[in-house]
Structure to design on (543 residues):
């Protein structure tokens, strides 16, 4: 977990540097621009995080299904939408 | 079939979205779907998203109808949504009500993405409580998802839900009232300033609030090159998943407030409380009201009597802790007839928004049939210096029937209120109370509550 947290921090820091390095000035955008750009930066980080989460969830359920009779149980009952 | 000569009134709060609008006719609420929203509306139905959300009880259902909205040239369809029994707003919700509304929004966004659509708004005002469950009422909030697009409602979600929840959880539960000031949600720079420094060590709060706010201020007045970057659906799901996990983690820290443990501190015996309950029930049975507003409901002990009789009941209280306990209690026991809401009767939610007509005041929203004011009058008259005739007049404006408890000055609870102040209330007597209320109400019943000095009245407006 420690390693993941460190990696997260480093990636986040890189994101921040990227955020602060936007300097081009060509087109005016409304005040929501900051939110928009921020979301794009966050996307890379959290996209990777969910990929890892789904991978571990699949691994966990592979083994759970192997040893359990309840093969229909999904990874997250509440979110089986 | 509605009468074509009847008047159509466009809802004054329904102007932000060009996809359609809400209008009322013969006290029924309708929604016009404009032609500009036709493709999205068709996709909502054909993709199966509408049915899925209805099955999950996340979206209000509707029927298509054919009536004139007054702007038919723009109309693709007119729908009649399931009618909402009582409209409430986020500044009247407890912590868990806002949290459940936030999770409903995120859950819907997750389902929408699986059906090739995305929420274009994440406004807390799009959620209403039906049978004590948060339900999306804006059928026109879904748009076609375009691969590579970020979530347009991300900022709004942070302002309407995440910021107030974080502030209520990590700073002070009373900060939900900032939503009353900021109609489009709490500005993130303000939330960032008000949150304790230690929240910067929470990855999700650091990113979605503190850094998000910094990014907003950095680009607020800056000209930048048009943005070419795209984000994958996986990344979008990552953001939704992270928001969901932080919202789930945010907890309300129970604090002791004046009212949260009121029933542990009351001065009457269980026999008196039982008798009071019996009287409330008998009075309600006599009048069979269409709805009940319990004012000063606390955790809803007496509102429950009305709710259990099948009467739609709004349980108002000034204390966020009491409202929270009431909501959680209703949820746990699956009580669907009661809506606990936060309201300071001495300063109720006012008319807000554009022209002061966007979000109507609490007391104007729906006519109350019966009001209950149990153990309330001494707080209004003594703690708030309100003369009895003014209190009587107030009740004539909100109800037809009134169940009201008179708490005399000799009662130890009234004595507590007088404990730290001079008694400037020579007119606070049962005789004066009756005289003031007889001016505007006819009395139907009055009974002494056993083993107490209090009296419970049933009266109706003249």
């Amino acid at each position: 977990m420690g390693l993941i947290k460190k990696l997260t921090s480093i990636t986040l820091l890189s994101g921040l540097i990227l955020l602060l390095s936007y300097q081009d000035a060509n087109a005016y955008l409304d005040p929501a621009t900051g939110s928009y750009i921020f979301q794009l930066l966050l996307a890379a980080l959290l996209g990777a995080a969910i990929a890892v989460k789904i991978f571990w969830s699949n691994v966990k359920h592979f083994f759970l299904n192997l040893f359990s009779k309840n093969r229909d149980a999904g990874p997250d009952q509440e979110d089986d939408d | 079939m509605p009468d074509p000569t009847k008047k159509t009134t466009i809802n004054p709060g329904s102007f932000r979205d060009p996809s359609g609008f809400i209008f009322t006719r013969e006290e029924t609420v309708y929604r016009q779907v404009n032609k500009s929203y036709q493709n999205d509306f068709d996709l909502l139905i054909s993709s199966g998203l509408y049915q899925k959300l209805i099955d999950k009880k996340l979206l209000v259902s509707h029927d298509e109808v054919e009536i004139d909205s007054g702007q038919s040239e723009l109309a693709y369809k007119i729908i009649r949504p399931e009618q909402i029994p009582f409209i409430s707003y986020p500044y009247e919700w407890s912590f868990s009500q806002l949290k459940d509304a936030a999770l409903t929004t995120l859950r819907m966004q997750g389902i929408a993405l699986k059906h090739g659509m995305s929420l274009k708004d994440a406004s807390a005002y799009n959620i209403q409580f039906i049978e004590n469950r948060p339900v999306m009422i804006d059928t026109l909030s879904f748009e076609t998802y375009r691969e590579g697009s970020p979530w347009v409602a991300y900022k709004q979600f942070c302002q309407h839900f995440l910021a107030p929840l974080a502030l209520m959880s990590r700073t002070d539960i009373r900060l939900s009232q900032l939503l009353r000031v900021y109609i489009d949600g709490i500005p993130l720079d303000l939330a960032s300033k008000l949150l304790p420094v230690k929240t910067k060590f929470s990855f999700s709060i650091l990113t979605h609030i503190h850094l998000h706010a910094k990014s907003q201020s950095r680009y607020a007045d800056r000209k930048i090159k048009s943005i070419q970057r795209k984000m994958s659906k996986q990344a979008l799901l990552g953001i939704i998943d992270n928001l969901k996990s932080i919202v789930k983690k945010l907890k309300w820290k129970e604090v002791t407030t004046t009212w949260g443990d009121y029933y542990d501190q009351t001065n009457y015996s269980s026999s008196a409380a039982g008798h009071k309950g019996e009287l409330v029930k008998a009075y309600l049975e006599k009048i069979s009201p269409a709805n009940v507003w319990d004012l000063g409901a606390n955790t809803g002990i007496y509102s429950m009597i009305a709710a259990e009789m099948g009467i739609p009941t709004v349980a108002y209280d000034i204390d966020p802790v009491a409202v929270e306990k009431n909501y959680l209690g209703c949820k746990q026991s699956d009580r669907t007839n009661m809506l606990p809401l936060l309201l300071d009767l001495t300063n109720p939610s006012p008319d807000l928004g554009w022209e002061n007509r966007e979000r109507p005041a609490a007391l104007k929203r729906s006519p109350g049939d019966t009001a209950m004011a149990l153990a309330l009058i001494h707080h209004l008259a003594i703690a708030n210096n309100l003369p009895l005739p003014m209190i009587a007049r107030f009740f004539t404006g909100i109800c037809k029937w009134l169940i009201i408890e008179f708490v005399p000055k000799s009662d130890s609870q009234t004595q507590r209120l007088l404990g730290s102040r001079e008694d400037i209330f020579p007119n606070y007597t049962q005789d004066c109370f009756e005289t003031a209320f007889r001016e505007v109400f006819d009395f139907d019943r009055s009974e002494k509550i056993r083993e107490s000095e209090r009296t419970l009245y049933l009266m109706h407006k003249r």
Q: What stands out?
A: The interface with chain B takes residues 8, 12, 16, 19-20, 22, 24-29, 31-51, 53, 79, 81 of chain A (CB under 8 Å). Residues 20-29, 72-77 of chain A have pLDDT under 50 and may be disordered. Residues 57 and 63 of chain A are 10 Å apart (CA to CA). Chain A has one domain: 2-21+30-79.
